[in-house]
Design brief:
The complex is a heterodimer of chains A (about 300) and B (about 260).
Chain A (H helix, E strand, L loop, with lengths): L2 H32 L6 H18 L4 H24 L7 H23 L14 E4 L2 E4 L2 H22 L1 H11 L3 H4 L4 H26 L8 H16 L4 H22 L9 H15 L14
Antiparallel strand pairs in A: 1-2
Chain B lengths: L3 E10 L2 E11 L4 E5 L6 H9 L6 E6 L2 E2 L5 H7 L1 E3 L12 H7 L9 H5 L3 H20 L15 H14 L4 E5 L7 H18 L2 E5 L3 H7 L2 E6 L2 E6 L1 H6 L1 H8 L8
Parallel strand pairs in B: 3-8, 3-9, 6-7, 7-8
Antiparallel strand pairs in B: 1-2, 1-4, 4-5, 9-10
The chains are: A mainly alpha (about 300), B alpha/beta (about 260).
Chain lengths: ~300, ~260
């Protein structure tokens, strides 16, 4: 492999990885706050991508406004799911909540299928203007670099909120000891709502970017594979930790791209991509069962 | 007007009556104790007053308002703050962040203020940080502000937990076995610490404790619970002489009186 190909593959991996990371963040945040694995999250990602289709075709919006619109509407969807489906089960067994999450996922997938049909969708050709004109010079922008940059900016915003604001601090506190948090004057409902807003917003952004990166791939079932992979990325990173989710996502992106890039010359078919990728991640979990950033939770009596 | 008044507060866990007709008045500025053998329902009373549990029957009047049924964060905002029997600090967070979370109810800004870095956000964050540091300094914990809470020695973690409860600026502070696991020297310091809180911050204090030396030395009034029933109430001298109290303690095997 020459240097140029290597650089291209590196960008591919970074792009794929940052998209996984954006979705993984939603899994990890909801788990941190509610100890719930939100299996509908992959479908929230799909919903975000389809709101993008709506924004681009029906409203004729360009890339950035579509992105914002989708993030807002999908965040509202996230809040609604939490209020309608999860909140009534807050004191039920965790199994009930997980099964409900799977049900919500099916509802979103099939609802979207009924609404839009099974044909794969794509964004309009001019949706993502890959060039900016400053004065007389026109700068060609690589789609991949823009995607990576947008993902990075979103991650940094999230990290700032979690580290430096009262809500982020309360989110972290809930993930360490839920019982004490309301007694210290923090409304748990508000923090949970915010968690879903942030998680769903990031998933929506990932959905739009996914459609820009891999054209002609928007289907109501697109959230299944991506959702599973992002979930695994979150687990590998150490579920409950947002740095872990970001790192796990990137790692998975790199493994997938480079298994194909390095494997095909030596006869490993690209269809083994997931097999090799997940085997590697399994090894990580065998060595570090709590994930890269995870801390074993001490069960309290 | 009493700061806190409970009227026939009763609580059931399933069919078990954990607290029965609990009546108490606490006046502003008092330092009151709640004692009783293990399992007597003391912590349950605290959980009822702070809203962690909802009383099955009875009224809890705080500052002239019935607080039964209010969510815990709202009760905390009204001025009741607490510590826990087993330390419940957020272990992986720094001591400073632990204190800052407890001030959550006192700050107001939204996402717009954060993203635009408006003064409303910056000033308030700075103000609570300054306030948290001031509290830590006041109780000689400022040196540990940036350490994860779990790194502190046990006695200091207990103190951080009290400071965290105070950070919400309460009128009434509930301490659930503050001396548990402390050595005599630490208990000595804790007694001074608790008295300072009352004299310097003017906070009314209600505490559960098994260490009789602490209770008898600093509490002005003591309530004794046994099997959810109030068996005695009065000053330290009355309680020490009360035959029912002595029976409750000595009548139970494996019960330690220190």
């Amino acid at each position: 492999m020459d240097l140029d190909t290597l650089a291209q593959q590196f960008l591919n991996a970074l792009q794929l990885g940052s998209l996984y990371a954006l979705v993984a963040l939603g899994y990890t945040m909801v788990y941190g706050v509610l100890l719930l694995i939100n299996f509908a999250h992959g479908d929230i990602f799909m919903f975000g991508a389809f709101i993008g289709v709506f924004g681009a075709f029906v409203l004729g919006l360009p890339f950035l406004p579509t992105l914002l619109l989708s993030m807002i509407i999908t965040a509202l969807l996230g809040i609604t799911i939490e209020k309608v489906a999860y909140k009534p089960l807050r004191h039920a067994s965790r199994l009930s909540a997980v099964i409900t999450a799977l049900g919500v996922g099916l509802l979103l997938e099939n609802g979207m299928l009924a609404l839009t049909g099974a044909d794969p969708r794509r964004y309009p050709d001019n949706f993502f203007a890959a060039s900016v004109t400053i004065g007389d010079t026109t700068l060609e922008l690589s789609v991949r670099i823009v995607i990576i940059a947008v993902a990075l900016i979103l991650f940094l915003c999230l990290y700032y909120i979690v580290q430096r604001t009262k809500w982020g601090m309360a989110m972290r506190a809930i993930s360490y000891d839920k019982f004490a948090v309301p007694l210290m004057g923090v409304s748990q409902d508000r923090i949970i709502t915010l968690t879903f807003v942030l998680g769903a917003g990031l998933a929506a952004a990932a959905g739009i970017l996914w459609g820009v990166a891999f054209t002609a791939s928007l289907s109501p079932y697109m959230g299944l594979r991506v959702g599973w992979k992002a979930f695994i990325a979150a687990v590998v990173g150490g579920i409950g930790d947002i740095r872990g989710a970001a790192l796990g996502g990137l790692l998975l992106g790199f493994v997938e791209i480079f298994v194909v890039a390095l494997g095909s010359p030596i006869g490993i078919s690209s269809s083994y991509r997931d097999l090799v990728g997940f085997a590697l991640l399994l090894v990580i979990l065998v060595v570090r069962p709590t994930g890269l950033f995870g801390v074993a939770r001490r069960q309290k009596l | 007007m009493p700061l806190l008044k409970t009227e026939n507060v009763t609580h059931f866990f399933g069919g078990l009556k954990a607290v029965s007709d609990f009546n108490l008045r606490i006046e502003p500025g008092e330092l009151v104790g709640l004692i009783g053998p293990n399992g007597a329902g003391k912590t349950t009373v605290f959980n009822l007053v702070t809203g962690a549990y909802r009383a099955t029957e009875g009224r809890i009047i705080f500052d002239d308002q019935d607080i039964v049924g209010l969510p815990p964060h709202q009760i905390n905002k009204m001025g009741i703050s607490r510590t826990f029997q087993t330390i419940r600090l957020w272990n992986e967070m720094t001591v400073l962040d632990n204190i800052k979370v407890a001030q959550h109810g006192h700050i107001q800004y939204d996402l717009k203020d954060i993203f635009l870095q408006l003064p409303r956000y910056r000033n308030q964050e700075q103000a609570i940080e300054a306030q948290a540091m001031k509290m830590l300094k006041l109780f000689n914990l400022a040196d540990h502000a940036q350490q994860p809470a779990r790194n502190l020695p046990y006695g200091q973690q207990r103190r951080v937990e009290i400071v965290r409860a105070l950070a919400a600026n309460p009128k009434l502070l509930l301490l659930d076995e503050p001396a548990a696991g402390m050595n005599p020297q630490e208990i000595e310091e804790l007694m001074v610490f608790i008295q300072r809180i009352r004299s310097e911050l003017g906070v009314t204090i209600w505490l559960i404790e098994h260490q009789m030396r602490l209770v008898m030395n600093i509490c002005e009034r003591i309530t004794v619970l046994d099997f959810g029933e109030t068996i005695a109430e009065g000053g330290p001298d009355d309680i020490q002489r009360n035959t029912k109290v002595i029976e409750a303690y000595l009548g139970v095997e494996d019960e330690e009186i220190s």
